[in-house]
Specification:
The structure holds two protein chains of two kinds. By secondary structure, chain A is of the alpha/beta class. Chain A is built from 17 helices and nine strands. In chain A, helix 3 packs antiparallel against helix 4, helix 13 runs antiparallel to helix 16 and helix 14 packs antiparallel against helix 15. The relative contact order of chain A is 0.13. Chain B has one domain: Alpha-Beta Plaits, CATH 3.30.70.20. Chain B has two helices and four strands; from the N terminus they run E-H-E-E-H-E. Chain B has a two-stranded antiparallel sheet with strand order 1-4. In chain B, strands 2-3 form a two-stranded antiparallel ribbon. Chain B starts with a strand and ends with a strand. Classes of the chains: A alpha/beta, B alpha+beta. Chains A and B meet through helix 14 of A and loops of B.
């Protein structure tokens, strides 16, 4: 009783709450270069005193994150407090992994945080380390994100003069392929193996990096932790919806004046985000939510769309890792789906039979439809292949790819039917949906940890 | 106590022995990879399931025991 009372009083009193306005995460961001430690502390204030856990008591930060109802921002939305608690309760000294290894071609938020606001995410990593009893924080960044690598390296060096920074911080450069940012793949990479998913058990929160309890959190999730620790859960919940409080980063791209990363309140309308980005530059045929594991909503429905899990769910969509990709009327949704489906098949790590064979067969079938070479009942073939792939891989990649393909087939059914009958259309040459320019083999990558502190 | 089948999809190399030894619960997809029925096994199938798991050349088929929850 007395413990919970003291936890309550530790929250900032409502009258001292910072204003609820946006931006929160992106406050003080400059157009060029990283925010240095001094400016970071001037914008956000000093790190609050250590929220350490006691020998028998939980860190008060975990309860605060729970009351904030912070969900993971890597796509799954798992309650962050539950994850922290599992690692804190596991036996052995924990390790914290900051997952900034975004492999989603249409997502730029991890890069934005690393390049421009490195201290915000390192604050979050440091606070999480104190909360779970970890002495090490590893920041995982894609090898293709060279600006992020430089910025994080410099920021880690700068933080050595920060008092109370007990946890050792280091950077690890991760191969840039789609699945490398998956939790188990990151842990396998940090253990000296390939950046590929593994079979569970063991559970990562019990036995992850070097068989120690491991907390893997998305970069944005930890950036929110850095602010919740400073301003409290009540402040956090002043924005957003009751089930999805707070703000979130959205990477908006496609035919719009200023594509990029925006911070919005959960539940904000898509129209307001598009207005903030300078408006559309072409008619919009549809929008893809959640990236290449996500789902489409057609252009006519977009004016009514609000950006939160509960608003998108009736459309079969979610925000995923905060990706909204608009497709213009000048593009062919069938050819675009075929191109991305082939890329998704190429991003299978080659470990599970249904993913290797199923995604290849799905991409082939979509390609046949796109060129008018499909046999009768190609749609049934897609449905059958989808059922052979779903929930049969060691990770979520095959399921995500199937979601994307099935959503495109359903949303653009008339276009798929036209292509099946008449073959390629005039817009088929368009290549609007972004894919990485180079697709490197994971094996060509140097897996050494880059030790910087 | 009930038993369930589980597959390590990474270890599986589509030898197909399991589907021959336990056709009641395992079929093969068009590429030869097993599709499992993961509902709890009836007692009369547990020995057959154990044999199927032991016959897998890559130890990819697992027979997992779980305590039934009250």
């Amino acid at each position: 009783m007395s413990e919970s009372a003291s936890l309550m009083t530790e929250e900032p009193a409502p009258e001292t709450l910072a204003p609820p306005a946006l931006p929160r995460l992106l406050a003080g961001i400059h157009a060029r270069g990283a925010m240095d430690l001094e400016s970071h502390l001037a914008v956000h204030g000093p790190l609050p005193p250590a929220h350490k856990r006691g020998r028998r008591t939980e860190s008060p930060l975990i309860g605060r994150i729970e009351r904030a109802r912070l969900g993971g921002r890597g796509g799954a939305g798992f309650p962050t407090a539950t994850k922290l608690r599992a690692v804190a309760d596991a036996r052995g000294r924990a390790i914290v992994v900051i997952n900034a290894a975004e492999g989603e071609p249409a997502s730029l938020k991890d890069r934005t945080l690393c390049q421009s606001l490195p201290h915000l995410l390192l604050d979050g990593g440091q606070l999480a380390a104190q909360a779970v009893g970890a002495d090490e924080v590893i920041v995982c960044v894609c090898e293709s994100a060279s600006a992020s690598i430089h910025s994080i390296t410099a920021a880690i060096a700068e933080r050595r003069r920060l008092p109370g920074a007990a946890a050792r911080m280091q950077l690890s450069v991760v191969p840039s392929h789609y699945v490398a940012g998956q939790e188990a793949a990151l842990v396998n990479h940090l253990n000296g193996g390939p950046a590929k998913p593994t079979f569970t058990p063991p559970m990562i929160f019990e036995q992850g990096v070097r068989r120690r309890p491991t907390l893997v959190n998305n970069a944005e999730t930890l950036a929110h932790v850095a602010l919740i620790a400073r301003h409290g859960s009540e402040w956090f919940r002043q924005l957003g919806t009751p089930t999805q409080p707070g703000s979130t980063l959205i990477t908006l791209s496609g035919p719009i004046a200023h594509p990029g990363v925006y911070e919005i309140e959960h539940g904000a309308s898509l129209s307001s985000l598009i207005d903030a980005s300078g408006g559309t530059t072409a008619d919009v045929r549809g929008a893809l939510f959640g990236g290449y594991a996500g789902a489409w909503i057609t252009g006519d429905l977009l004016p009514g769309v609000a950006l939160s899990g509960e608003h998108l769910a009736p459309h079969g969509a979610s925000l995923g890792a905060g990706v909204v990709l608009l497709l213009s009327e000048d593009a062919c949704p069938v050819a675009e789906t075929a191109r991305v489906a082939r890329w998704l098949a190429s991003q299978s790590t080659g470990q599970c039979g249904p993913c290797v064979n199923g995604l290849d067969a799905l991409a082939g079938t979509v390609e046949e439809i796109a060129t008018g070479a499909a046999q009768a009942q190609a749609n049934q073939r897609i449905a059958r292949l989808a059922s052979l792939v779903q929930r049969r891989g060691a990770c979520g990649h095959p399921d995500g790819a199937v979601n994307f393909i099935l959503s495109a087939v359903e949303t653009f059914a008339a276009d798929f039917a036209d292509h099946a009958r008449y073959g390629r259309c005039e817009a088929c040459g368009s290549e609007e949906l972004p894919l990485p320019i180079r697709m490197r083999e994971a094996s060509s990558v140097n897996h050494e940890l880059a030790w910087t502190a | 106590m009930s038993h369930r089948l589980r597959l390590n999809a990474i270890a599986c190399e589509a030898h197909g022995m399991c589907a021959e030894l336990l056709p009641e619960r395992i079929t093969l997809d068009e590429w030869g990879y097993p599709i499992l029925d993961e509902e709890p096994l009836p007692p009369e199938l547990v020995d057959h399931a154990r044999r199927a798991a032991q016959a897998c050349p890559t130890f990819a088929l697992l027979l997992e025991r779980e305590r039934s929850r009250a």
